[in-house]
Design goal:
By secondary structure, the protein is mainly α. It is about 70% helix and about 0% strand. The chain is globular and about 50 Å long.
């Protein structure tokens, strides 16, 4: 199978193995746009999860989320008559499944029982830097020093801003959030690598299929013990995190990473916590301080610097 890409993009982050470099046959602008679209869809995940928790328990919500997404992915795979991936790709798909399909949704959902969405956004603030580190360790990619400086600066801005929003308190869900950070970074890195050898939606689809038996069993047990109170918010939240966050969002995200590189795409997620705060204010009535516009400008500057630095070599 081949990645879904075309045209020309001469820029790379740095010298790296061929299967993890930005795609040499795709325009960088398109890859950036796809990755940004993924960031927008992900920014609604925490508010949607909070809505979903109004109707479902945390274990039920995570299991149903993955089951519905797997049904959607399976339909696409069958309709396109996609062949089963080669044996050497299943280990990577298992990492994506454990990190992105199961680990991150479960840990963040458990955290949101006690943390607000604005506090939980600190995870996403740290995710770009963590993903870049994982990618560098996994693939040998070496972005220039200016890239790392801008990435660390952007992460620092997001951390300070989100911690200030929570009043400096450390919630009981922080361990869940930091665990989610690590497993998601691993899943993003491996998914970005696999998206170089198969379309991103197939990476997501096969990872979802891989977890189908676990989620079937999990849903049966969870629904037996966790009461369900259906509401409009709960249903909309479940549908969003299933169809958009878990399938469509990951599709455009992995495709974007395949075209512009994992480390460079990961820095676009620096804007995600601020987008989440925006949605939290309008959808959940959470308070957002007047410092938000200042932080937004600072983060956008850091994003611009990482994108510029990614076009050069140290």
């Amino acid at each position: 199978m081949r990645a879904e890409s075309s045209a020309t993009a001469p820029n790379t982050i740095a010298v790296a193995p061929a299967d993890v470099r930005p795609s040499p046959s795709a325009p960088a602008g398109r890859g950036t746009l796809l990755a940004l679209l993924g960031v927008v869809t992900f920014s609604l995940t925490f508010p949607s999860t909070a809505w979903g928790l109004e109707s479902f328990g945390p274990w039920s919500l995570v299991a149903l989320r993955s089951l519905l997404a797997a049904a959607l992915a399976g339909g696409f795979l069958l309709a396109r008559r996609v062949r089963v991936p080669a044996r050497e790709h299943w280990a990577g798909l298992a990492v994506v499944a454990c990190g992105v399909v199961v680990g991150f949704p479960l840990l963040t959902t458990l955290a949101l029982r006690t943390s607000t969405t604005s506090h939980a956004a600190v995870v996403v603030g740290l995710l770009p830097l963590t993903t870049a580190v994982f990618s560098s360790l996994r693939t040998g990619t070496r972005p220039p020093r200016a890239f790392w400086a801008a990435a660390v600066a952007g992460a620092a801005v997001v951390i300070v801003f989100t911690v200030a929003q929570s009043g400096g308190a450390v919630s009981a869900g922080d361990l869940f959030l930091f665990g989610a950070l690590l497993v998601c970074a691993a899943g993003y890195t491996e998914g970005g690598r696999l998206a170089k050898v198969m379309p991103g939606w197939q990476v997501t689809g096969w990872a979802l299929i891989l977890t189908l038996p676990l989620n079937l069993a999990g849903a049966a047990v969870a629904l037996a013990y966790e009461p369900v109170h259906l509401s409009a918010h709960g249903v909309v939240g479940l549908v969003w995190v299933s169809a958009v966050s878990t399938f469509l969002g990951l599709y455009v995200w992995y495709r974007g990473m395949a075209e512009i590189g994992v480390a460079r795409a990961s820095q676009l997620q620096l804007a995600q916590p601020l987008l989440t705060l925006f949605w939290s204010f309008f959808l959940l009535d959470e308070e957002v301080s007047a410092a938000a516009p200042v932080a937004a400008v600072a983060v956008l500057v850091c994003i611009a610097l990482t994108q510029r630095a990614a076009r050069t070599r140290s």
